[in-house]
Amino acid sequence: MLLSYKNSGVVEAGCDEAGRGCIAGPVFAAAVILPPDFQHPILNDSKKISRKQRRELKTIIEKEAIAWSVAKINPKEIDQINILNASFKAMHKAIDKLSVEPEHLLIDGNRFNPFKEYTYECIIKGDGKYNSIAAASILAKTYRDDFMEKFANRYPYYSWETNKGYPTRDHRKAVMEHGPCIHHRRSFRLYPSWEQAKLF
């Protein structure tokens, strides 16, 4: 079982992102405030559970959370501000959209850009330690997967329905053969230059 909270008696929002290592699609982030007594036997880091379990948990989290929100930063802005800052900005947007004001933030990872006056703690592998961060990882992952699957139909060469925009061998090969599309991140250098991938 994961821990219900880090600080007793404090309204904590867990925050996590999905899609940071992708070469296509937005980076998504979620913020979740759970009841202090919330527990679920399969809740864990989204990478450690099955697609079916993530879908089940998504419904439960959205129903039982005190507040939750999801936000994204698109590839064009990722290229402008870099993926690390884009991940933080997506988290900021998600936090700002919460219907309940958190008193403290639990951030998955080891870095974060401060936001407003919120106090925060960075927790390495926090999505495998705290319920709220795990819940945020589930929402960020499922919403991003849905986005990539939706656009997979429009760009069938890239196999986004399976790779979700990550740089798999087949995805990279498809970029070389067909060129990148508007959803690819130009700042992620798979090749010496994107011109080699038929950008022009």
Automatic annotation (TrEMBL):
Recite the UniProt cofactor note for this protein.
Manganese or magnesium. Binds 1 divalent metal ion per monomer in the absence of substrate. May bind a second metal ion after substrate binding.
Q: What is its EC number?
A: 3.1.26.4
Cellular compartment(s):
Cytoplasm
Q: What class of enzyme is it?
A: hydrolase
Binding annotation for a divalent metal cation: D16, E17, D108
Residues annotated as domain RNase H type-2: 10-200
Q: Which cofactor does it need?
A: Mg(2+); Mn(2+)
Mention any one GO cellular component term assigned to this protein in its UniProt record.
Answer: ribonuclease H2 complex
* TM region positions: none
Read off the PANTHER family from this record.
RIBONUCLEASE H2 SUBUNIT A, RIBONUCLEASE HII
UniProt lists the family membership as follows: Belongs to the RNase HII family.
Task: Quote the protein name from its UniProt record.
Answer: Ribonuclease HII
